[in-house]
Amino acid sequence: MMAQLIDGKQLSDQVLQEVASEVELLRAEHDIVPTLAVVLVGEDPASQVYVRNKVKRAEEAGMCSIAHRLDAECTQDVLNKLIDHLNNDPKVHGILVQLPLPSHLNDEEVIASIHPAKDVDGFHPLNVGALASGRPSLVPCTPQGCMIMLSQVHPDLSGKNVVVVGRSNIVGKPMAALLLQANCTVTIAHSRTQNIEALCLNADIVVAAVGRAEFINADWIKPGATVIDVGINAIDVDGKRKLVGDVDFESVARIAGAITPVPGGVGPMTIACLLLNTTRAAKHQLA
C-alpha cells in the first residue's frame, strides 16, 4: 500500500488564500500593501527561477513585489547600500536576498545587515536567537512549511521521535527548534553521525535535508513513518534532467505512512511561507 501523499501545491494554495485575505484586510483597514523586495545578484539560473516564482506568487496574492537585480561583479559596498536603502524605506516590509551569493560576497554580513523586522527569510541572528529560545520571531520559510505539512498528518506532534538529516542554518537547525517547540524528541543527524540508518529506522518522522539525491532509501524508514523530503536535486536519467529529492521516493513510498513528493512538496510551501512572513512583518511594522 502506497503512502499518503502530502500535497505541497494544494497546501500552499490554501496558505496563499489566507495571505490574500490578510493583504486585503491591511489594504482596507490601514491603506498599506505588503511589499516584498527581492535582491538577486548575478545570473544563476536556479536563483532566477526562484525569484521569478516568488515575484509571481506575491502578485497573485495582491502583494507588491520589487525585484532588484545586480551584476555578479557588484561589490559588497554596493549590495550593503541597497539593503540599507530598503531597510529605511517604509514602503518595503520584507527583504529577501537570494542565496547563494557570488563567492566574493559575504553571506553572513549581508544577512546581518537586513533589519530583523524585515528579515522574511528568518536568517538574521536576532531572529535565529528568538527561535532558539522559543520567543516570537520571523521563522525560516522552509521549516515553517514543513511544520504545516506535518500538521496534516499529525495534528499533535507531542512525543514523536523525529530525526532531521542535515544541520544547515537554513533548514536543519531551525527545523529542530520548531519540532522541539512542538514537544518532539529530536535528533539531528549529519555527515559525522554514526549508525544513521538505525537512527532513522527508529523515527516516527524523518526530515531529509542533506542535499544528496535519493540518499535515504526504504531500508532507513520504519513502516508507517512520515517522511518530509526537503531536497531538490537535478540528476540525469536517460539523457534527460530530472528533479528528485534526498529520498528515494519510489521505494520509501511503499514503506512510509505519509511522504512529500519532489517536485510539488516542500518547494511550494517555502514560497507560501515567505509571503506569509511578509504579511506578518507588515502587520508588526504597523505597531
From TrEMBL:
Origin superkingdom: Bacteria
Keyword Repeat: no
Keyword annotations: Amino-acid biosynthesis, Histidine biosynthesis, Hydrolase, Methionine biosynthesis, Multifunctional enzyme, NADP, One-carbon metabolism, Oxidoreductase, Purine biosynthesis
Record's catalysed reaction(s): (6R)-5,10-methenyltetrahydrofolate + H2O = (6R)-10-formyltetrahydrofolate + H(+); (6R)-5,10-methylene-5,6,7,8-tetrahydrofolate + NADP(+) = (6R)-5,10-methenyltetrahydrofolate + NADPH
Domain Tetrahydrofolate dehydrogenase/cyclohydrolase NAD(P)-binding: 140-285
Binding site residues for NADP(+): G166, R167, S168, I232
UniProt GO molecular function: methenyltetrahydrofolate cyclohydrolase activity; methylenetetrahydrofolate dehydrogenase (NADP+) activity
Pfam families with a match to the protein in the record: THF_DHG_CYH, THF_DHG_CYH_C
Gene3D superfamilies (alphabetical): Leucine Dehydrogenase, chain A, domain 1 (3.40.50.10860), NAD(P)-binding Rossmann-like Domain (3.40.50.720)
Biological process annotations from GO: L-histidine biosynthetic process; methionine biosynthetic process; purine nucleotide biosynthetic process; tetrahydrofolate interconversion
Functional description taken from the UniProt entry: Catalyzes the oxidation of 5,10-methylenetetrahydrofolate to 5,10-methenyltetrahydrofolate and then the hydrolysis of 5,10-methenyltetrahydrofolate to 10-formyltetrahydrofolate.
Family: Belongs to the tetrahydrofolate dehydrogenase/cyclohydrolase family.
Subunit structure: Homodimer.
The protein's name in its UniProt record: Bifunctional protein FolD
Name of the gene this protein is made from: folD
